[in-house]
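Q: Structure tokens for this one, please.
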Amino acid sequence: MSLLLDIIFEKIQVYAFVGPSGTGKSYRAQMVANSRNIEYIIDDGLLIAGNEVLAGVSAKKAPTKIETVKNALFQDEEKRKEIQDILRKRKPKSILILGTSDEMVKKIAKNLGLPEITEIIYITDVATEEEMETARRIRVTQGKHVIPVPTFAIKKDFSGYLLDPLQIFKSTGRGNEPYISEKSLIRPAFSYLGNFTISDTAFKQIIDLVLKKIEGVYKLSRAIIRKHDGGYDDGVYIYMEIVIEYGYNILNLTEIIKNRVQREIENLTAMNVLKMEILVKNIHFEGK
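A: Here is the predicted structure, written as tokens:
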């Protein structure tokens, strides 16, 4: 690490927010940060500022629990350097690190080359036992996790994960002023509920049902769903061949098809449609 990087990092005030997994740390992270004028948050491998994910790969995207731990601790040199480069450019005055134990947050700070932690805030300081128990129950029974940024900010990076925006959370901010924060609920493909996959047939059935509701489409002749190199987690490519009714503007109709199919696929499967190709294979004449 360069001398310049050392000097920049020495000026950062480091805080930690600690609590057992599934007790609501991510849900309350922005509230804790706001109450102490903390600018940046490190949560499960992500560097977050306000409503924006600046860098990192969420540990919640890891395929196994072992990889989850590695990501959260920034043991990968490339990912660690990415975070350090952003911090060097941004020169934050303060940062909040989330973790499940004192040892974990200290390890994260050390791996990133940050100064010693100034203060550790515990989940029990900001949440009741009843609130923590509710959070645990949701984690265990539904496999849901919280990321402290709005859904629009992470949707692209969480293709294949069931995302839901949390209702706006109001609490006390600086100077007892109202504080508004948006968060996202996700259920990773790897979770306490196990893995889930969506077959090509399911995609084709969705496409077929959508097309049947569009005036001017006679039928779906063929549909091919191709996986991205990284698997469904990154999204899907869709190719379809259709037959349309005579008398409809082909360009307008295919644009309607594209928009509606993409919307339904992303709403129902939570996967990004990376590319869609539509071939008008034939034209159907009424009575023939």
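A few notes: The chain is about 35% helix and 30% strand. The CA atoms of residues 23 and 135 lie 5 Å apart.
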